[in-house]
Amino acid sequence: MAVSTGTSPMLSMEEVAKHNKKEDCWVVLYGKAYDLTKFARVHPGGAKLIYDAAGKDATAVFDPIHPRDIMDKLLKPSLTMGVVDEATIKPEHVAQPEAKKPAPKKPVRKAETEGEDETVVEFVKPPLAAMLNTFDFESVAKETMEPQAWGYYSSGGDDEITLRDNHLAFQRIVMRPRVLVNVRDIDMTTAFLGVPASLPLYFTATALAKLAHPDGELAIVRAAKKAGVPYMLPTLSSYTLDEMLQAKQPGQEVFSQLYVNPERSRTQEYVNKLESAGVRALFITVDAPQLGRREKDMRNKFTQQGSDVQGDDEEEGEVDRSQGATRAISSYIDPALCWEDIPWFQSITKMKILLKGVQNGEDAVHAFKLGLHGCVLSNHGGRQLDTCRPGIEVLPEVMEALKE
How far is residue 343 from each of residues 111, 231, 371, measured CA to CA in Å? Predict the structure, then answer.
């Protein structure tokens, strides 16, 4: 029986528990019941995780990765079925997370002498002081992260040609050093969009940081302050916007990245919240009207779902192999976003507006003529359209176009 409480009906857990099937799947998160029947098919971690929690309170499973407000971002309001009476939730109604997997092991040779047998040893994470460059961090992450998380973070678009070329592009740039320059005192401080920075760098927005560490974006906020560089808050974060803003220290300045929602009222509400919190600049992502086909990520999801979930759909020809952790959030992104929308953004905020994902001179000039404050030359880390040029090689074309 449902009882109305304000604008949302009050539900008993017994009522929610009736909706425990693949074709009728309700899940409770943070005290609210959601109809995830259709969403399960595009869930980043695979449909099995949703179906296993059908008719249950899955907050304990959901919380380690996702922010509390993500369902409000991803789902239509009509899919929020109501508020669940906490007093009616019994232990058998609560879905429990799987036990933590043991540290991965890998084969190594005991010695270099031929004929020696291989043995399997447990991977030991090296101390932070032993991490000398970003590739060291990447190799350790591959060993320590869950396969689905690593697949999401490391995957590139299609054949990953652009992903590889992003690295190779910097190897094609050679130094032309000048000598006999006084370098006793070096000052690399600068200002970026009016925000001081200890280096000409910023921490860019990346989604779902809890996949790597429970502190997620909160740790990045703290690290940015310690390093003295700005952080671009992600729209699709593991923590809520309020939690990320609360993690800021006094005087710390941040930017924000924006995926534009098809429901523009939600986008305006989010932008207004950013501005009222003192966020200095808004970076609108323009290179991802549909998130890329990242096959490594897609394979992880297909493997995790298992044949028991896919059996019926295989027979009916309804298996969707185009989905992975990157594609599930595509419903949150407006594919109709275009140049004609820019004046609307300028009308709803006084923040500086930049485009994130420009890849040629013509678009940079267009952005300049519309009065925008800058562009990020980026191919989305090689995770969108494959065979695009690295941003560092687009830069000369853009600078020449702007001079003209």
Answer: 66, 26, 9
